[in-house]
Design goal:
This protein is α/β, with parallel strands linked by helices. It has helices spanning 32-41, 52-57, 63-73, 86-94, 104-108, 110-120, 148-158, 179-188, 202-210, 220-224, 229-236, and strands spanning 2-10, 13-18, 21-29, 46-51, 76-80, 99-102, 124-131, 134-137, 142-147, 162-167, 192-196, 215-218.
Length: 241
């Protein structure tokens, strides 16, 4: 199973939110490039980056920081947050990221998603952020009418190869992840599923791996020391693409 240590960026800083609440923000570092390098030194291959300003408002306010992380960390970087136009997709791919994550745009503009998947293939992933069984959009500030499983079925038919699934109710609480949800998803859909939200302990990592999941995102638990990244990577015996 692949591990994706995470950096969420606001105003060029590495932060974490609780349940996606922008009012509950903790700044962990003003040097996200250094954080990314520390993940690489611990043995990481991948990095999950989210521009939280972009997620809420659209645009690419932290593009230069992200470009620097790509260039200096040596990690395979996937990026999400406010990617709602072909121009933004191209900007990130030109900056060297290996995968772009669509969220709100995938829900609200399926034709755009289809076009991007046809053009870029597995360089396009979709973030499915779940709250009360529905898919959340616009940086988790709004709920769509789309149910999680119906939406994932559509994504599979479109040809999306990777779904990054976050249970918002678990995010940032260090209270464990939604193992039942990921088990059900992995049984229902033939796509690569990345678990996100509430991965708190090495036991969580081990249980997700035992399901045969493609990947898991490690966020707050890394910053608080609940999970040692090197130990987690050794546990998963991560392999490069």
């Amino acid at each position: 199973m692949k591990l994706f240590p995470a950096i969420d960026i606001i105003e060029g800083c590495a932060v974490r939110l609780v349940k996606g609440d922008y009012a509950k923000k903790t700044v962990y570092s003003t040097q996200p490039v250094a954080v990314a390098k520390s993940f690489a030194e611990a043995g990481a291959t991948y990095l999950h980056l989210v521009d939280l300003e972009g997620a809420k408002d659209g645009g690419t306010p932290n593009l230069e920081v992200i470009r620097e992380i790509v260039n200096e960390s040596g990690l395979l970087v996937e990026v999400g947050g406010g990617i709602r136009s072909e121009e933004t997709v191209e900007k990130y791919l030109e900056a060297g990221v290996f995968r772009v994550i669509l969220g709100t745009a995938a829900v609200n503009h399926p034709q755009f998603l289809i076009k991007m998947v046809e053009k870029h293939g597995d360089k396009i992933a979709v973030g499915v952020d779940i709250k009360d069984g529905k898919v959340a959009v616009k940086g988790w500030t709004e709920l769509s009418e789309e149910s999680c499983f119906d939406f994932c079925e559509k994504l599979e038919k479109i040809g999306v190869k990777t779904i990054i699934c976050t249970d918002i109710s678990k995010d940032g609480l260090l209270a464990g992840t939604n193992l039942a949800l990921y088990k059900e998803m992995s049984e229902k859909f033939r796509v690569d599923i990345v678990a996100s939200g509430g991965v708190t302990t090495l036991e969580d990592v081990d249980q997700l791996q035992s399901m045969g999941l493609y990947g898991a995102i490690l966020g707050k638990a890394l910053y608080t020391g609940n999970i040692d990244l090197k130990q987690a990577i050794n546990l998963t015996k991560e392999e490069i693409l």
